[in-house]
Every structure is written in structure tokens, then in C-alpha cells.
Amino acid sequence: MERTHFLAALAKDPLQNMAMVQMERLKNFSRIVSHGTAAALISKDEALIMVTAMEETDLTVLLSQMDQEQLKRTVIYVAKLSLKPIVEQFAGKRHTDGYLQFTSPFDALTPMTCPLPFYNITIEDAPFIYAHYGKGKELGYEYILSRIQDGPGLKAVAEDGSIAGFILTHEEGSLGMLEVLPKYRGKGIGPALEYAIAKEMDKRGLLVYSNVVEGNLNSIRIHQKLGFTLCKETVAWLDW
């Protein structure tokens, strides 16, 4: 019954709540709870809490019923930046990164190709990805390993056998971790990798969506080129 209520709450704004729908679809949660139009999901490792609501009063009630200490020590994803003040009443003031959320059915995307072949990323590629991904050290080596193991992940390979670029998916099921090495940029590798990973996600029955940090103009242009739709509200990640 709780799952029914939870999914009903998400269905009130399915595009904005896509990350939470994806996490439930991936079964990557330990608990889900809901109250009225509000819903929360606690990740399987309990390191992440995701929340959403149509009505602020519903979110207030829901958060008041949750483990207050867990709220204060856990990274929190908020499906609408406008709900941040409500969350901070319970979780405390946090550093916040705002992200633009893009989504599209795979068959509505504009196909993209590049001259280089793509291969699946393997565990042997982890040191390279950790060293060359812009947020590798921030996310940590164990996180990189987990993303390779869960997949999908693709790499573009140059003629000399070196990795020219790569892309993976994040824990919450968004496509991301896209990196093209400097000397290979401007050759269409980034858009082609993103299109290819979207195809793999679609094959797995996953939603195709992405969170792009505000101000990342290169990534925004790639999403626009592929034909992604921008969701109406910014999403937020609350950390320390």
C-alpha cells in the first residue's frame, strides 16, 4: 500500500519527479514513504534521501515523521529547488547545487555519431576514469567502481587504443559523468556518447534523463542538440 501511495504522489508531476521514479524502478532504495502529495525515498545504502511534494504542508508533515538525525547527516536530493527552505527546517542549512533537469523519450532524440568506435567500460578502466573525470576525486574511487559495475558505461577509443572520452550513469539513474579528453574535443564525441548511453538506458527499460549543473554551458548545448526537454523547475542536491 505504501508503494501505491508513493507512486501516486510522484505521478502528480512525473517529469519533475523523474529521478525518484528511476530510483524506485532500479529498486535502489531501503524505504519509501509518502504523505498526501509528498514522497521520500531512502537509498539502499541510506546515504541519500530524495524528497518531493506538490504541497509544502504535506512535505512538512512527512519530514516531521522521519528520522531527524538521519535527515541531518544524509545527502538530500530535492525534486524542486523551491522546496529547499522546508527541507532545511529539518535537515539544517546546507550547501546547495542547483541542476537543470533534461529528459526525453529515446526515440525522440536526434541521432548522433562520431568517427571513433565505442566499447563498454570495464573495471580495468576505473583508474583512468577516476584520474580524468572532472569530479572524480570529489565522488571518490569507490563511487566510480560502483558506477562501472552497475552500468551502463561507454568509452570512445582513439586509433592508438587510448580512451578519448567516456560516459556513465549516476547512482540515481541519470546519464552523466561525461568527459572528453581535451585533444579530442570538437569532434562530436560528447553528443555521440550521450546518444549511445541513452540508447543503452532505453534498452534496460530505464528513463532517459540527466541533471546538468547550472552554468555548464557545454553540457546544456549537448542536451539541446540532442533534443532533450528542459523540466520546468531546477532540482537541488543538499550537501555540506
Brief descriptors of the model:
240 residues; alpha+beta; four-stranded antiparallel β-sheet; 12 strands; 36% helix
The count of DSSP E runs of length 2 or more, i.e. the number of strands, is: 12
**Share of residues in helices:** 25-40%
Q: Identify low-pLDDT runs.
A: none
- What is the residue-averaged pLDDT? 96
Morphology: globular
Please trace the helix and strand order, writing H or E for each element.
HHEEEHHEHEEHHHEEEHEHEE
Using only C-alpha atoms, the radius of gyration works out to 18 Å
**Strand count, sense and closure of the main sheet?**
8 strands, mixed
N-end to C-end Cα span: 35 Å
Assembly context of the chains:
single chain
Helical/strand content category: alpha+beta
Provide the β-strand percentage band.
Answer: 25-35%
Quick summary of this structure?
The protein is an alpha+beta fold. Helix content is 36%, strand content 26%.
